[in-house]
Specification:
By secondary structure, this protein is mostly beta strands. It folds into 2 domains: 28-165, L,D-transpeptidase catalytic domain-like (Beta Barrel); 171-329, Beta Barrel (L,D-transpeptidase catalytic domain-like). The chain has 4 helices and 22 strands. The protein has helices at 32-36, 145-154, 185-195, 291-300; strands spanning 22-25, 43-45, 55-60, 65-70, 73-79, 91-95, 98-104, 112-118, 125-128, 141-143, 160-164, 166-167, 171-175, 213-218, 223-228, 231-237, 239-240, 249-257, 262-271, 287-288, 306-310, 327-329. The strands form 4 sheets. Strands 1, 12, 13, 14, 15, 16, 18, 19 and 21 form a 9-stranded mixed beta sheet that branches. A 7-stranded mixed beta sheet has the order 2-5-4-3-11-6-22, covered by helices on one side. The radius of gyration is 19 Å and the shape is globular.
């Protein structure tokens, strides 16, 4: 297993907590027939199912499908073509590093890569290309041309992209208090106050330069790190209750739920294995950090913030590398 863990300026990783929460489905089910019977080059696109909120993208290598979620609701599914043998598409959690509607490859003979969403600086990206119905690329994720145009319109630098062998649809979590600590009424008020007026990254203007924060949790290292604009600004020993494993999860902050006195998160469980990934609704209840870390995280939360949980160790020596991959396994 190879782990690479680096951070870009526009990367979001969220925070979640040890208080009790309720879990419920947060997406509209599409007919399985509609998805399974898509032919190469075909896709579905239903933005009206969720018109606003954080966007996340899941690439399923066994299915050769790309799933797009907004605010935890699936709004699109497309056929795709991932890396062929010898050029396999890496699996893990990535973020969009750069966008270019008219990009050309600097590696493969100036090949066109329309509507490119870059995932690594070494050449992996989402872009329009030929779809023969099986893995055929040099590592990128090829998409139908029209779908790539639509996807380009809803992603932003920092959009999380999960490439995996298996995944669950997002489910919604509502915490009764601040993440990584016990519930208190004043704590909820403080967090809501810090979120008030903060915009989603998709609404940031080019001239705006907000600090982007991220959190990554490693059960192997028993460490939680808080990153702001590429810098580790807080680090805490991880207290993990009830076992050693966390699984592989990505959480995205949707906003405050005033009626439930909590925060709303969309969560995706993913796995590099071909077998179905199992969702663990209680995973966030098992995590605790030092009070100073929790306070630092409270001050930096924003809508669209994302958190990655992994059972793999972090690799400090890769943090200064040019590829801003959060976690890559293979």
């Amino acid at each position: 297993m190879m782990i690479r863990h680096c951070f870009s300026r526009r990367m979001f990783l969220y925070a979640a907590g040890a208080a009790a929460f309720a879990a419920r489905p947060a997406f509209a089910n599409e007919m399985l027939k509609e998805i399974s019977q898509l032919k190469p080059g075909e896709f579905t696109w239903h933005p009206e199912r969720s018109e606003s909120g954080p966007v996340s993208v899941v690439v399923s290598i066994p299915e050769q499908r790309v799933h797009v979620y907004r605010n935890g609701v699936r709004i699109a599914v497309s056929t795709c073509s991932t890396g062929k043998q010898g050029h396999e598409t890496p699996t893990g959690v990535f973020v969009v590093l750069e966008k270019d509607r008219n990009h050309h490859s600097s590696i493969y003979d100036d090949a066109p890569m329309p509507n490119m969403n870059r995932l690594t600086w070494s050449g992996v990206a989402l872009h329009a290309g030929n779809l023969p119905g099986y893995p055929a690329s040099h590592g990128c994720v090829r998409l139908p041309m029209k779908f790539s145009e639509l996807l380009f319109g809803v992603t932003h630098v920092g959009t999380p992209v999960i490439i995996a062998g298996a995944h669950t649809d997002p489910w919604e979590l509502t915490h009764p208090g601040m993440v990584l600590s016990g519930y208190a009424e004043h704590e909820f008020e403080q967090v809501v106050s810090s979120l008030d007026g903060k915009k989603l990254p998709s609404d940031w203007a080019a001239a705006e330069s907000y600090p982007v924060t991220s959190v990554i949790v490693s059960s192997a290292d028993r460490v939680i790190e808080l990153i702001e604009n590429d810098r580790v600004v807080a680090r805490s020993k991880l207290t993990l209750k009830g076992g050693d494993a966390l699984g592989s999860h990505v959480f995205v902050l949707n906003g405050a739920a005033n009626d439930a006195r909590g925060l709303r998160w969309s969560a995706i469980t993913h796995s590099a294995a071909a077998s179905p990934a199992m969702r663990d609704d209680a995973v966030m209840q098992r995590i605790a950090a030092d009070p100073a870390f929790v306070e630092a995280m409270q001050q930096r939360m924003h809508p669209g913030m994302t958190m990655v949980l992994t059972d793999a160790p972090l690799s400090p020596d890769s943090r200064t590398g040019k590829d801003f991959v959060i976690v890559t396994t293979g």
